[in-house]
Amino acid sequence: MTDTLDDCIAFAERLADEARDLYAPYLSTAPRTDIKPDRSLVTALDHAIEAHLRSRIEGAFPSHGIYGEEGGTVRLDAESVWVLDPIDGTAPFIAGVPVFGTLIALLHRGVPVMGVMDFPAIRERWVGAAGRPTRHQGQPCRTRACDHLGDAMLSTSNPDFYAPEELPAFQALRERTRWRIYGGCCLAYGLLASGRTDVAIDARLALYDYAPFIPVIQGAGGVITDWDGRPLGLDNPSPRILAAGDPARHREALDLLRHAMG
């Protein structure tokens, strides 16, 4: 990378701070809501935060690409591409459930090498970068060991998000784990990186929904792939992701999914 990773991490954290400032007036007030063509929810704050982040990136790194949920893509063929989700978990944001966050990632040649997951309502942040330990609230964090899938705590954002043909895979994993946590949204993946849960699965996602999870979870000792075990990135923006804190449990969960999907 022409720009150092340290510079990009510091810049991304400043962007997350600025997004928090934009959130502040809305954390205790229900926002006006619109429905996008795909039936997902959006607010004026989604657009305002992303517009601000894009403007800052264009000013600081004019040769970099940008891939945002609300504003689309520019220069995707650039060596460095920023991936933005201004409010991941818009429905929880609207409902006042504090699991929503701002997601910022940097891809280098299509591979996520830096990710910031910031949660303004609870003022928590995870930062991951290639070759470095993940930090939670500025301190290194690690996933936890899990000797048996039957002892694992599983999270998923919402069982309603699975298509009918995907439900058998989720059900197979649900039946083999001990506990399930629903509704954690992007926060669930930060908690997995901090060793609070063991396995996370989701479907019907876009790259901007999970790009920061990749360096965050990998830097904490975990594994995250698509449901076929392939690396995630610009070349494989799969809508189906699987993460585990213990690599052995990730392999076991993958086998379950493959068998369930036939």
Write structural notes for this entry:
With 262 residues, this protein is of the alpha+beta class. It contains 8 helices and 15 strands. It has helices spanning 5-23, 44-60, 90-95, 167-176, 187-193, 207-210, 213-219, 247-261; strands at 33-35, 41-43, 65-68, 72-74, 80-88, 101-108, 111-119, 124-129, 135-136, 139-140, 153-156, 179-182, 199-202, 223-226, 241-244. The strands form 3 sheets. It has an 8-stranded mixed β-sheet with strand order 4-3-5-6-7-8-9-10, with helices on both faces. The chain is globular and about 50 Å long. The mean pLDDT is 94.
Concise summary:
The protein has helices at 5-23, 44-60, 90-95, 167-176, 187-193, 207-210, 213-219, 247-261, and strands at 33-35, 41-43, 65-68, 72-74, 80-88, 101-108, 111-119, 124-129, 135-136, 139-140, 153-156, 179-182, 199-202, 223-226, 241-244. By secondary structure, it is α+β, with helices and mostly antiparallel strands. The termini are far apart.
Give the tags:
262 residues, five-stranded mixed beta sheet, single chain, alpha+beta
Q: How is this fold's topology laid out?
A:
Layout lengths: L4 H19 L9 E3 L5 E3 H17 L4 E4 L3 E3 L5 E9 L1 H6 L5 E8 L2 E9 L4 E6 L5 E2 L2 E2 L12 E4 L10 H10 L2 E4 L4 H7 L5 E4 L4 H4 L2 H7 L3 E4 L14 E4 L2 H15 L1
Parallel strand pairs: 3-5, 11-12, 11-13
Antiparallel strand pairs: 1-2, 3-4, 5-6, 6-7, 7-8, 8-9, 9-10, 13-15, 14-15
Helix pairs in contact: 1-2, 4-8, 5-7
